[in-house]
Amino acid sequence: MLQQFGPVMSLFKRHALTISGAGTRHLIFLHGVGCDQHVWHYISPRFERTHRVVLLDLIGSGNSDHAAFEPERYKTLQGQADDLIAICRSLGGGPVDVVGHSLGGMAALLAASQAPELFSRLLLLNVSPCHRNLGNYEGGFSDDDIEGLLASLRASLRDWSAHVAPLAIADDGQTVIIDELEGYFCSNNSTILEHQVHCALMADLRDDLSKVTVPCVLFHCRNDAFVSQDARNCLMEALPNVASADILTSGHFPNLTDPEVVTAAIRFQLSKVI
Hints:
Blueprint: H1 5-14, E1 18-20, E2 26-30, E3 52-55, H2 78-90, E4 96-101, H3 103-114, E5 119-125, E6 133-134, E7 137-138, H4 143-155, H5 157-169, H6 175-186, H7 190-202, E8 216-219, H8 229-238, E9 242-244, H9 254-257, H10 259-270
Parallel strand pairs: 2-3, 2-4, 4-5, 5-8, 8-9
Antiparallel strand pairs: 1-3, 6-7
Helix pairs in contact: 2-3, 4-5, 4-7, 5-6
């Protein structure tokens, strides 16, 4: 049951949030940097017979209220985590199941570390707790790498998108999907996107992982340019209640390149009693 009708409608409008499906349990899909809720369009409808499917745009993305994007609030992942907590409470206080991709999964981890009662389980698709190379930890990106990526985005959103999309898909033969992803990237406000990229790549959740007591399942793929082996190992070692279910496909966006495989993996995990 939705709580406090007026404030809830305002919250839903800010996130362009929709709920569909005939089930009784809420299943929230969270997108990553540069995308919006439509990145789940191959997958989310397949769960409408069993769940109340919740789709939303993170503030600053897609059809969310861009005027609500406050740089200071969203300087770190805390802003996105706070939004997710508010959404879960508006849905009746949970617990909900969450499928989070990349940045969306990072926000879900942080939210679950602070309000575990709202979450039943987290299904984390190609998520890293920290993308930076720090000390002996190889997150995959040096500070120079990050600055270079941000500089190229500032120079040209279109050129940046044309470079990052094939890198993320990791299969030059997937031209239609590369074009789709490039379209998502190019639809962004470049200033907000730069802010989001910086937030994601500079985040470090490693110290928060031990506080995530809800069950987590890690879905990782081969040849993911954005999730290092150290990142995977860190999640497996630090999360108290975690299982790994590697997806036999490549790249950072299996929800676009191999939706049938991802759908089957999610469905199998949701079928488990916890």
